[in-house]
Amino acid sequence: MKVAIIGVGSVGSAVATAIKNTGLINEIVLFDRDGVRARAAAEDLGHASAFDRDVKISAVSNYRGLKGSDIVVISAGANQKPGQSRPELMQANANVINDIISHLMPNINPQKVILIVVTNPLDSLVMLTQKLSGISPERVIGTGTMLDSARLRTILAHQFGISKQSVDAYVLGEHGDTSIINWSSATIGGIALNDFCKQVKIPLSQATKNTILHRVHGAAAEIIKGRGATWDGIAAAVADLVRCIAHDERRILTVSIVSRGVALSLPRIVGGAGVVATLNPKMTASESSDLHKSIQAISKTFKPFNKIG
Ligand code: NAD
């Protein structure tokens, strides 16, 4: 399987490493408008692969080199700068997506390829990528709230002193400030969260739940404060998504695809053909209302781009 990564900055190079480490992919191709950077990343990763698996890793200087890719990861574009508004970031990265899709499409098979969008603002850019590429929505997948859900599982696991792998809890909606925690569908070891709390005698008050949501929303900013950007978490999320697709695993992941005119994260079954089904989790009226607000926020960011395509 051949995976292309477009945009080999902090995120793209960490994604390349994480994908190499899955051991599932035999060819990784890197492209960046900064060709020197892409070549250096390929060189470095090539040396790393001499210690474990013999993966073919190369940098290409134009889009023809991406021909035959089964999966294309888009991690090109800017991070939100201090003081920069979401619409400003959207405009900047919409130009990047426009550039990428116009060059990419003549070189990939739209019926076979799966695009993975990582660049922010994630959900609006999934909508733009799908619109500009014309690829069917189940094949244009944003990592969405996979990372946010991982952050939530990490916090809950710590709270209860258990393994993250035993926590089944999802963050839904926008990959951003309006995402929600779907408390009413959360389970631990197959036991509804409320029952679990009673059994282990660790209550989860509304105030604690609010703090947890605040921590999930603030996680990226905290990391950026300490190391300038985030890359390891998102790289692991992309590698997990690639693994799910490459092995047709049909696991449930909170990815973002366009459906009913908007892209947002819901629990979706992901396999070799992309998203094969979307699930409607149990929600309280208040969770539904918050999810609706999140959808409105995504639509607002995308609105100026509605006429494109
Ligand atoms: P970075 O600045 O380190 O790297 C961006 C790279 O994109 C650069 O190498 C640049 O040369 C390249 N690039 C820009 N325009 C291009 C174009 N038109 N064609 C090809 N390459 C181009 O940034 P980063 O830290 O790697 O972040 C990349 C994106 O990922 C940002 O939008 C960031 O917000 C996003 N991100 C998303 C998540 C998530 O959970 N979805 C997590 C972390 C970061």
Features:
309 residues, six-stranded parallel β-sheet, 9 helices, globular, binds nicotinamide-adenine-dinucleotide
Q: Report the sheet with the most strands, covering strand number, pairing sense and barrel closure.
A: 6 strands, parallel
Oligomer: single chain
Radius of gyration: 19 Å
Can you give the mean pLDDT? 96
Helix content: 40-55%
Number of helices: 9
Through-space gap between termini = 30 Å
State the shape.
globular
Hetero ligands: nicotinamide-adenine-dinucleotide
Low-confidence stretches: none
Order of secondary-structure elements = EHEHEEHEHEHEEEEEHHHEEEH
State the total count of DSSP E strands. Answer: 14
Question: Which strand-content bin applies to the residues?
Answer: 15-25%
Strand order, sheet with most strands: 3-2-1-4-5-6
Task: Describe the 3D structure.
- This protein is an alpha/beta fold and 309 residues long.
- Helix content is 44%, strand content 19%.
- It has helices at residues 10-22, 35-49, 86-104, 122-133, 146-160, 193-200, 206-227, 232-246, 285-302, and strands at residues 2-6, 27-31, 56-59, 71-74, 114-117, 140-142, 167-168, 171-172, 180-181, 187-188, 191-192, 251-259, 262-271, 274-278.
- Strand 5, helix 4 (122-133) and strand 6 form a beta-alpha-beta unit.
- Helix 1 packs across helix 8, helix 3 (86-104) packs parallel to helix 4 and helix 4 packs across helix 9 (285-302).
- It is globular.
- The two termini are 30 Å apart.
- The chain binds nicotinamide-adenine-dinucleotide (NAD).
